[in-house]
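Field reference: "sequence" (input) and "structure" (output). Example, Mitochondrial inner membrane protease ATP23:
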Amino acid sequence: MEKDPIEEKSKEQKKFDKWRKSLMYITGLGLSMEDKKKFESELEKDFENYQCKRCEKWRDILMKNSPIVTFMLKSLEEAGCKIDKRHLQCKPCDENRSGGFSPDHGILLCQNRFFSKKHQEDTMVHEMIHLFDHCRFKVDWNNCLHHACSEVRAASLSGDCRWTRELRRGFFNFTKQHQACTKRRAILSVQQNDACSAPGVAERAVAEVFESCFNDTQPFDEIY
């Protein structure tokens, strides 16, 4: 089927107009303040769309090809919580998180926070462990001990505390690095829970459940 020359010309014109506006924005020539704000808004929207499409593409690839993600999908199905890509939504987030889990809304993937596909894979597994715990234990997320246990397990089992990730964060401990990271990450997450945000509550909850929950590696045979 031959391409419509008028349609092709229109596409080329749009590309040219966008390039011209970009040049004007960089040089500051020929753009009013109103035009500049409008163009900045267009750029921001384009970048947000790009991040969303990248997140969804990585999500679909990982759900099909990642051994650990496909294992978690199978484990969730066996636990009575079968999910598909509709349950993992890509959305922009603030800088304090890369993902989230809600019993009512499923798994949130923070499209603007991933620095690699591997980072997104770890985040998906982290949140899927929360979902697994919710299915298996009927977790009360307002109970700080319940929440702390799931955060310990998710931080430990998802790859979030592997040595290379810790290096990126600026932590260089070699002795019991995994345990230290797991405790720290779990406390940070529990502190975000309004029910556990009072000073010292998250620290005490994580300390109380740490040993038993760190040693519970289900559905894995061992720490990934």
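DSSP finds eight helices and three strands in the chain.
The first helix runs from residue 5 to 27.
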